[in-house]
Amino acid sequence: MPTIDELIARLNLLPHPEGGYYAETYRSDETTNPGGRYPDGRATGTAIYYLLTPDTFSGMHILTSDEIFHFYLGDAVEQLQLFADGRHNLVEIGTDISAGQRPQRVVPKNVWQGARLKPGGTFALLGCTVAPGFDFADFAMGKRADLVARWPAATDMITALTRD
Fold first, then answer.
1. DUF985 domain: which residues (predicted)?
2. 33 in a structural domain
3. pLDDT in tens, 89-109
């Protein structure tokens, strides 16, 4: 099993602004039609490697595109999803299917999300595919107070997945 440092070096991973490490591995040459939801157009799809370690987490954020997480290697991840209607889901991304984990999870556009290793985990190497493709213009980090006010039943996980 590779170490965290080996994964970072061999996959050319960099610190991600939301937490963890990443490297973009694909960006479609095709773009969406300008003038629609994205006036300047977007790549039709993008993909990254994404690494979580015990001292990192994916801070609560929102995208205007759907995002699919793919589990590759390591330990299970727990992901919080906050929906506009007030619901929240805590799902697990991993390979223990009998325990409810799934090796692939979808976060629909405009759903707040954050993730961390399950307690005791060493690392998780994931892939993230975004369609239409990821652009930082379509990304926003969440503020703890705002998220807790809208989803009080998820306060503990929101607190764990925010930095303010």
1. 6-141
2. no
3. 999 999 999 999 999 999 999
